[in-house]
Write a structure and sequence with these properties.
The chain is mainly alpha-helical. The protein has 21 helices and no strands.
Amino acid sequence: MEQFSVIYARYRRSIGLIWDAHFKYIKSTMVAIERGENINLKGAIGDTAVHIACLDIFNPYLIQNLLRFEPNFNIRNDEHQTPLHIYMKTLYVGFLALESILETGADPNIPDAKGNTCLHYLAEYRFKKMINPKLLIHVFLKYNADVNIQNYYGDTPLHRAVEHEAVDFIAALLHTEASVLIKNEENLTALDLAYINRNNKPEVFIEMSKFAIILNYLRIPVNQLFLDKIHSDESLRLFNDQCNEEFSRLKKIKVGNTDLTLNVILKTSTHAFAKYLRNSEIFEWFRNFESGQYKIFGTRINRHFKEGLARKEAEEYGYTFFRKTSQTLPEVCHDKILTYLSNEDLYNLI
């Protein structure tokens, strides 16, 4: 009864449409909309009917019913939250409507009043034991969610996941393009946070340590304290042995008809790899590569190819631009300039 009173007090000034949605009256909500009510109309605190429908006390099928009226899922309430932000808090009811919501054009990268996006919310709310985080993140990536987006404090979703000790979510993020080296306003990376909190949540530290081991094999600098932990933890020793076995195999695999080995390719920058992909044999080799035999480095190989291919296509735009506007400059100069430009910058040149 107390919960009801709080909810009632919060929404008593809301429009009739929102009141209908609030009390699960699916039928009356549909009738209200069909008689001409604006589904995107805001109530007293900026919530629309769809914001209210995304709260945890509602039947999840209400959202599905509202979708046929094409509501705007990017409208923000007084706290700058979209309906999708609110839905992230209540995913334990299942995510039946999630992909449908994203298909309507809901932007997963819209920030709330603190700069937090939907992925920041996912790191905080404790749905993870009921829903497969890898599957969930895959859905968001399909709709262009940015796993490295920073809130107004500089925290990425991975920072938040480490802070909230969401081990499964951390593991899922680390299998995407999530960076462990982005620094927040306190000049801390997600790895730094994991080390600082290592005694409070050793599982988080172990998971991040495994990723540090992978980075070390790729010659990406990491905190030596993570690597020192290998010798004192049995699970990390075992993981390091597995990495070593896979990486030894990568050293023996020649790419196409070249002398390049797969481990060398993995260590190259995206810009350098894009140049390799201009070779049709190397491109075809990676396009047909089956990564399933590499449980640790397979995902990174696929991602490196995807990023290299995107970079190659962007640089082709850049070279076209330079040939038209800077014909007197030698190509080596064009190539040097390209190293300083992002993919987005290159497309904006045209």
